[in-house]
Amino acid sequence: MKPAAEIGQPLADIDTPSLIVDLDALTRNLKRMADTITDSGTDAKLRGHSKTHKSPIIGRMQMDLGAVGVCCQKVSEAEVMVEGGVDNVLLSNQIAGAAKLDRLADLNRRAYVPFCVDHLSGIAQASEAAVRAGVTMNALVEIDVGAGRCGCAPGAAAVELAKAIDDTDGLRFGGIQAYHGSAQHIRAYNERQAATEGAVTMARNTVALLSEAGFRCDIVGGAGTGTFRTEAASGVYNELQAGSYVFMDADYARNGGEDGGAFDIFEHALFVLATVMSQPSPDRAVVDAGHKTCAIDSGPPTAFEMPGAEVTRISDEHSVIELGNVNDRPQWGDKILLVPGHIDPTVNLHDTYICVSGLHTPDARVADIWPVAARGCVF
Amino acid sequence: MKPAAEIGQPLADIDTPSLIVDLDALTRNLKRMADTITDSGTDAKLRGHSKTHKSPIIGRMQMDLGAVGVCCQKVSEAEVMVEGGVDNVLLSNQIAGAAKLDRLADLNRRAYVPFCVDHLSGIAQASEAAVRAGVTMNALVEIDVGAGRCGCAPGAAAVELAKAIDDTDGLRFGGIQAYHGSAQHIRAYNERQAATEGAVTMARNTVALLSEAGFRCDIVGGAGTGTFRTEAASGVYNELQAGSYVFMDADYARNGGEDGGAFDIFEHALFVLATVMSQPSPDRAVVDAGHKTCAIDSGPPTAFEMPGAEVTRISDEHSVIELGNVNDRPQWGDKILLVPGHIDPTVNLHDTYICVSGLHTPDARVADIWPVAARGCVF
Fold it and tell me: Which residue has the higher pLDDT, B259 or A139?
């Protein structure tokens, strides 16, 4: 399929619905994260989560600013990252199934690609693949620090799994994964920090028990865009897995900030450009972007800098925007910018990023077009 | 990306998460729709909506059983259908923007591809494209028969737009689009039918007014999987745009049937195959399919034929299934079939259909692999 635009075109000529990167804001977000970590004085490094951007181009930009590598959730994503020149990829997820584990083992011939386990069966199956391939793979024990999804219990259970890894051919204990996913979107800063401090305590105790048992953690990984400063300051976490900060989204923008104000350390750098394709009444616009284009798991998109506008319905191919309270209302054929509720699954719906320079100026122009290289990489 | 399976492999060897077609059930669903329309004695024909399946292979299967063509929502979908041998495609949607309209005009050189309008600006912009390309395009007037999204008011407003089309170079009046989308999922049959009868009345009155004004409708289109028998029996609609019936989904299965029982005329023929990748406790399984694989706009997926199981959380890459009330619980590494809440956006997340014969038998095997050819065709 032909991309929605060509390099050099003005914003007005970009076809819709399309995924627009504000290249200036992206650059500032990347820099701001790198500076924030440096300024905090922590020894922890960024390992940005590429499940957000699915692009080795952005992964390399993160590494150029000091990140040790990237995270992936899927073996097929890791393949795309390694192929794209990122040679340090943590699979922050369990890998089940011989086909995937054989691919993971093969990848470990070419790059450093540790992965997570939380079950003896997972260790046994991964060992078989490593032995088949003649490689040694680094396995991290994932502990559940409050998210209630994957991971064994912190403490003794993690030590048991570390011993099992150590006793198993083809595997080496590589550290722990301690990500508190559900803490990221707790709105009030104090509550969010309290949840994160709980995760830090569990990680600290587990690292201490592992140390007593003779296990050193290469990686103590976790943290996200909503909480990374707390993990960075902990002295326990040495890798920070924030992902969404590169682009921000409407849901993260609903978080409260440290000072009681807005969570505005990062800027919106990703949008869905949409066209008003139907206008059944003056106070309502229907645009050509629905949830096949803009993920809704964290709520509908918002209309960027259009006070009073509200996306009240979103279906496969359409969003209905109520304009009753909007002063300068868009008309049939006009293009508007939507801020997705959740970046990661929105990016996964698109084949290309249309990168625009000077986005919010009259000179907005397509500066680059990047593939969403790991789009659809679910295996 | 390598597909999740090869032809001939047993079900157990298919990688996950993957999109599985029950080829036997699909064949029965296609036949059942064709027979139901034939048996009803209506003159209306099926024009299956390809926004569900995004596959010219399935489109041609529908036409082989009597469908006049397919519907699409997007010009890029129509391009894929025409390229795949389907030469009669209704764009049941408004098309805004010169780039898209030029592509639509080009498509009309090679196939019959009518489209919808509901605004004078849309007519003017389409006319310019038709004139540039030197073609005549058929424009249907969409009327709002209760969905409250796109479409002009039924009656006089539609006649005004028909006149505008008639007065415009490069366009020809092609009929009306009168789809009541929000009626499809009204649970109680009687209420669903009442809403549909309302749409039928509006369509009938509009057709009569158009006729008085000298306009004949080639197409009076509408109807979906939930309501098509009512439109078929109306004597007004001549094309039925059902889409979901080919695969069914968990949300349509929550509809009530005509006899007060279940809405079970069609079978579940599409699944997401997932693997238990984490099992933090015996009564909980975490599978490797989240909402990047299985759309959740109409609720989470259900675990197929696993009474007592409940998908309680779904995130980007994981679903958490509570198994407390399940007798025969899946274990780490086991594969299970999920029934998506909503087929259309789920299909759009995948690159390939893994078509399995004998799916629910011990001999389940990959019989074919089809591309989701119009995946991501949002333009």
Answer: A139
- Best of A344, A378, A379 to mutate (most B CBs within 10 Å, chain B): A378
Residue span of the structural domain in which B140 resides: 23-248
Answer yes or no: do A32 and A15 share one domain: no
Confidence band of A202 (pLDDT split at 50, 70, 90) = very high
Please give, rounded to a whole number of angstroms, the shortest distance from the CA of B23 to a CA of chain A: 23
The 3-state DSSP class for residue A267 equals coil
At residue B52, does pLDDT exceed 80?
yes
Beta-sheet strands, E only, within B260-322: 270-281, 284-287, 302-303, 310-314, 319-322
- Measured CA to CA, the distance from residue B346 to residue B339 in angstroms comes to 10
Min Cα distance B128 → chain A (Å) is: 14
Q: How far apart are CA B175 and CA B162, in angstroms?
A: 9
CB contacts of B349 in chain A (<8 Å) are 348-349, 376, 378
In order of A246, B238, B373, the CA distances from B352 in angstroms are 30, 33, 8
Question: Which of B73, B333, B379 has its CB closest to that of A4?
Answer: B379
The alpha carbon of residue A14 is apart from the nearest alpha carbon of chain B, in Å, by 9
Cα–Cα distance for residue pair A42/A137, rounded to 1 Å: 28
Provide the CATH number for the domain around residue B138. Answer: 3.20.20.10
| Domains in chain B, number | 2
Instruction: Indicate the burial class of A188 (C-beta count within 10 angstroms; 0-12, 13-18, 19 or more).
Output: exposed
Q: What is the pLDDT of residue A333?
A: 97
